[in-house]
Fold these 2 entries.
Entry 1:
Amino acid sequence: MQLEKLFNMQQALDQHIEEKHELQNEELFNRKVLALLVELGELANETRCFKFWSIKPSSEKSIVLEEFVDGIHFILSLGIECGFQNLKYAMNNEPPGSGVSDQFLLIYESVNNFKNSKNEHDFKVLLESYLQLGTLLGITYEEMEKAYFAKNEVNYQRQQNNY
């Protein structure tokens, strides 16, 4: 995965949004954290991984992938806020040993840890655990990247249409 390219694209989108909405002097970190948590909940809802009381299956992969990519946008944006866009990241191709529900809980915990510390280690844990969730959901790095590019374009179009 070309994380450097994704970070650059996210930085340009963030700058565009901040200029358009005159947010250059606003503190956006906590709002981005909340946005990530909301997106994470939306993703969990589409996977239905926690709905032990229901036999209805997960949403189709394209919907899960779109929700997943929304989370990538906010994670990258948070990393940029803290200056972590130029770090080197090791891409772990092995899915974690835990199940999907446990991975969601780990990510919620990772978001909170990073929110409180704003340090490089906790950011890497958050990013890597989120990408591992994608792997658990059957999403390849190539699919993640392609979906990110497409959603980034949609986000620009939304800004042009006063979304």
Note: The chain has one domain: 3-160.
Entry 2:
Amino acid sequence: MNPTPTHHSVVIVGGGQAGLSLSYYLKQRGIDHLVVEKHDPVHAWRDQRWDSFCLVTPNWQCKLPDWEYRGPDPHGFMKKDEIIDYLEGFVKHVDAPLLDHCAVRRVVPTADGFSISTSRGEFTADQVAVCSGGYHVPVIPRLAERLPRDIVQLHSEQYRNPQALPEGAVLVVGNGQSGSQIAEDLHLAGRRVVLATGDAPRCARFYRGKDVVDWLAEMKYYDMPVDAHPLREGVRDNTNHYVTGRDGGRDIDLRRFAAEGMELYGLLVGLDGDVLRFAPDLAANLAHADAVYNGINASIDKYIAQNGIDAPPPSVYTPVWDVAQERERLGLREAGITSVIWCIGFQPDFSWLEVPVFNGRGHPGHRRGITAQPGLYFLGLPWLHTWGSGRFSGVARDAAHIAEAIEQRQGAVEAARARPAPAEALAA
């Protein structure tokens, strides 16, 4: 006979910064809950980031609940070990009711809540908050299956440092935040890099005397809710702008890398034998990134002018290198490529959540994390409410909002349980 499932008012799936932030606010409200984490709370930062990884937003934006950055360098960028220390401190600070190394296998709605099956037993809950993020399954194209077997292939989450790769040229596919930073890491180490680009945008690190993030915060961009953004929910599909906090922070300029010897190509579209095929769109990709860069700076110029702010003079980025000719083919052997790093992102996997709240691409429908399924919530997703929703800067605000919704519903659930049973039911 199966034991009776353990019941909690709320089960939080995911014990990273989002799940722990929600736990913090539920503890404040005295609401019984359990945080279920597949690995451990700092796993993603410790085990899925490369050695030279650092924040791309300044430290002052680290604003987890009652755990804001308090170090000596608020405008600096924490390195990997510092981020881990910051998060381990938050784990201790929250002291959540945590069940770690426990995989959630199935969540199903029931007549009075949810049934949750895990690798460590069965649970029931009145409400469930999904705080496991949206980056679950590494994207690797089927083309990868046809690459020569002696070529080492990694996804960006597996990359650690240049020394761990075999000698020879490295093909980096994708130039979003991870791809551009990994390409830079290899380039600075003296490795020969071939970078297959896409349409990722970029932004300046510093402009007119301040970090661009500081300007955008002052302009209230980070307070703009998703339904006020020009793209509305479409902004959730945008690729993050590439920039770096490395060595105190700087721009990432692929044109400069090209002038220094990095080989740039357009979008990788195919493989014929051992010959890679690329779209002839490198010039367009670089021009798009530069246009976004200059556009953001122009919006800062406008803000400075409108508010009469004393700041250094404006400037416009001009290319330091141009595409002489689009190259659409590259032989792997001819180029000496011995390793490939796939930096084209992740797909969500909520297959364990058997609730009809998803669209055709597997993304949940919600309004600021509250779904159409009573008692089901999401937290920590990109642009859940604002730009900072999936980051250290905004997850606390969203967690407080979800905690309030949970508290209101829990009150109604417990009030319903406390009502006397109907007379006809007692007579039966």
Note: The chain has a mean pLDDT of 95.
